[in-house]
Recover the amino acids of this structure.
């Protein structure tokens, strides 16, 4: 297994935080400083996205699609990806 990690600053413009082509076995996402919203493309918004509260974490198993994030303010998001 291989692991890669990244941190993103997310604001009102959607940011791609996970690529579609990684074939991840697990994806860990942690919203650190503000509420963030997650979605499958760059149209994600606070009304369409999955709400990730401050200090919330989400774990996705066998994920293959893109994940985008947006926030009403400035949010720091950490991502850890485990691949085969």
């Amino acid at each position: 297994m291989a692991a890669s990690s990244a941190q993103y600053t997310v604001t009102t413009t959607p940011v791609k935080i996970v690529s579609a082509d990684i074939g991840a076995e697990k994806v860990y996402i942690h919203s650190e400083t503000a509420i963030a919203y997650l979605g499958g493309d760059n149209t994600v918004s606070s009304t369409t996205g999955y709400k990730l509260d401050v200090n919330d974490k989400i774990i996705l198993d066998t994920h293959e699609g893109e994940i985008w994030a947006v926030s009403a303010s400035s949010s720091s998001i950490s991502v850890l990806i485990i691949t085969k």
